[in-house]
Structures are given as structure tokens and as C-alpha cells.
Amino acid sequence: MALTKADLAESLFNELGLNKREAKEFVELFFEKIREALERGETVKLSGFGNFGLRNKNPRPGRNPKTGEEIPISARRVVTFRASHKLKKRVEMNAGSRGKS
Amino acid sequence: MTKSELIASLSTKQPQLEYRDVELAVKELIEHMSAALAAGERIEVRGFGSFSLHYRPPRVGRNPKTGDTVRVPDKHVPHFKPGKELKERVNL
């Protein structure tokens, strides 16, 4: 089972006592603020979790793998994520009882 | 944008919440997401993206300073895949 926005809102309701509507709105706004910053071209650094960065990609020739047809891939800007050292450590330490993803 | 800037920005958007509560809420969200990944669980946020773990098999590495071979055990590393909306909005 994957963690969703509903689960996150639920925890704000349970742990912090925000009402359900506030909690839902807060979670929505949390992700929206991160999107807005990235949209402006800003890096987002959440210490203890990781950094969201941006990379500019040059145009390159591509191919439809199904038909073999050549299609150009235009220049674009993409989001990258680098997990913090702390998060990587936590993930590694809990090895063992882990499902594939 | 740093975590504290994010908190400040959310706080102006949510004036009915105390600054302290916004701070706690942001920390709770980040902690919840970290704990889920540490437990091997995926995170899926429509329009934003998904976090999952990628498996790295064990390998034999080398200490670049001494040249000694070292066995690097297998591990899982966090991975983020941007969602459709985020991809489109970030692309120029």
C-alpha cells in the first residue's frame, strides 16, 4: 500500500488536531508550494529529507520503441531529487523486510 | 527554497494556523514520508510525483585512495519520479 495525500492529511488530523478540511488543504498547499518554487526555477531543500533540483536537457533524437519511428525530443527542463544522507541512512538501516518497488 | 522558507510561505497562506503549528505540520509531513520510505513503502502524490526505492545489487568496489577492493553490500536507495503536472509546469 502506497502512502497518499489522504494518509498525510489523516496524520495532521490525528497528530496535530487540524480539522479534516484544514488538514486536506494543508497537504495540498504543501506540495503546491514546492511545485511553484520549482516552476520559478528554484531549488527546494528540505533538510533531513532531500533536495529537489532542476536540470536543463538538450534536444536529442528519440525513437518510438514500438514502431521504430524517429521523433525528435525537444530541449526541456526536468526535476531531479537527491535524497539527503539522513534519509538514505534510514532507508538502508531498515533493510531486510522490504518489498521491491 | 528551504524548509523554513516553505514554512513561512505556508504560514501566510494559512493565517488561521499559528506559525508554530505550520512548523509542526511541515515537520510531520516530512517525517511521515521519511518513515514510509524507510519502511519500504511507496509514496504517491497525484500531480506531484511518486517516491519509491530502487534496489542496488552488491558489488565489489575499490577504495580510490589505496586501491584496496571493498565489498559493497546491496542496498535500497530513494528514487523520485515527477508526476505529469509537475513535469509540465517545470518544463519551459
TrEMBL record, chain A:
<dbReference type="GO" id="GO:0006355">
    <property type="term" value="P:regulation of DNA-templated transcription"/>
</dbReference>
<keyword id="KW-0804">Transcription</keyword>
<dbReference type="InterPro" id="IPR010992">
    <property type="entry name" value="IHF-like_DNA-bd_dom_sf"/>
</dbReference>
<dbReference type="GO" id="GO:0030527">
    <property type="term" value="F:structural constituent of chromatin"/>
</dbReference>
<keyword id="KW-0238">DNA-binding</keyword>
<comment type="function">
    <text>This protein is one of the two subunits of integration host factor, a specific DNA-binding protein that functions in genetic recombination as well as in transcriptional and translational control.</text>
</comment>
<dbReference type="GO" id="GO:0009893">
    <property type="term" value="P:positive regulation of metabolic process"/>
</dbReference>
<dbReference type="GO" id="GO:0006310">
    <property type="term" value="P:DNA recombination"/>
</dbReference>
<comment type="similarity">
    <text>Belongs to the bacterial histone-like protein family.</text>
</comment>
<dbReference type="GO" id="GO:0006417">
    <property type="term" value="P:regulation of translation"/>
</dbReference>
<dbReference type="InterPro" id="IPR020816">
    <property type="entry name" value="Histone-like_DNA-bd_CS"/>
</dbReference>
<keyword id="KW-0233">DNA recombination</keyword>
<dbReference type="Pfam" id="PF00216">
    <property type="entry name" value="Bac_DNA_binding"/>
</dbReference>
<dbReference type="GO" id="GO:0003677">
    <property type="term" value="F:DNA binding"/>
</dbReference>
<keyword id="KW-0805">Transcription regulation</keyword>
<feature type="region of interest" description="Disordered">
    <location>
        <begin position="49"/>
        <end position="72"/>
    </location>
</feature>
<protein>
    <recommendedName>
        <fullName>Integration host factor subunit alpha</fullName>
    </recommendedName>
</protein>
<dbReference type="GO" id="GO:0005829">
    <property type="term" value="C:cytosol"/>
</dbReference>
<dbReference type="InterPro" id="IPR005684">
    <property type="entry name" value="IHF_alpha"/>
</dbReference>
<keyword id="KW-0810">Translation regulation</keyword>
<comment type="subunit">
    <text>Heterodimer of an alpha and a beta chain.</text>
</comment>
<dbReference type="InterPro" id="IPR000119">
    <property type="entry name" value="Hist_DNA-bd"/>
</dbReference>
From TrEMBL, chain B:
<comment type="subunit">
    <text>Heterodimer of an alpha and a beta chain.</text>
</comment>
<dbReference type="InterPro" id="IPR020816">
    <property type="entry name" value="Histone-like_DNA-bd_CS"/>
</dbReference>
<dbReference type="Pfam" id="PF00216">
    <property type="entry name" value="Bac_DNA_binding"/>
</dbReference>
<keyword id="KW-0805">Transcription regulation</keyword>
<dbReference type="GO" id="GO:0005694">
    <property type="term" value="C:chromosome"/>
</dbReference>
<dbReference type="GO" id="GO:0030527">
    <property type="term" value="F:structural constituent of chromatin"/>
</dbReference>
<comment type="function">
    <text>This protein is one of the two subunits of integration host factor, a specific DNA-binding protein that functions in genetic recombination as well as in transcriptional and translational control.</text>
</comment>
<feature type="region of interest" description="Disordered">
    <location>
        <begin position="59"/>
        <end position="92"/>
    </location>
</feature>
<keyword id="KW-0804">Transcription</keyword>
<dbReference type="GO" id="GO:0006355">
    <property type="term" value="P:regulation of DNA-templated transcription"/>
</dbReference>
<keyword id="KW-0238">DNA-binding</keyword>
<dbReference type="GO" id="GO:0006310">
    <property type="term" value="P:DNA recombination"/>
</dbReference>
<protein>
    <recommendedName>
        <fullName>Integration host factor subunit beta</fullName>
    </recommendedName>
</protein>
<dbReference type="GO" id="GO:0003677">
    <property type="term" value="F:DNA binding"/>
</dbReference>
<dbReference type="GO" id="GO:0006417">
    <property type="term" value="P:regulation of translation"/>
</dbReference>
<dbReference type="InterPro" id="IPR005685">
    <property type="entry name" value="IHF_beta"/>
</dbReference>
<keyword id="KW-0810">Translation regulation</keyword>
<feature type="compositionally biased region" description="Basic and acidic residues">
    <location>
        <begin position="71"/>
        <end position="92"/>
    </location>
</feature>
<keyword id="KW-0233">DNA recombination</keyword>
<dbReference type="InterPro" id="IPR000119">
    <property type="entry name" value="Hist_DNA-bd"/>
</dbReference>
<dbReference type="GO" id="GO:0005829">
    <property type="term" value="C:cytosol"/>
</dbReference>
<comment type="similarity">
    <text>Belongs to the bacterial histone-like protein family.</text>
</comment>
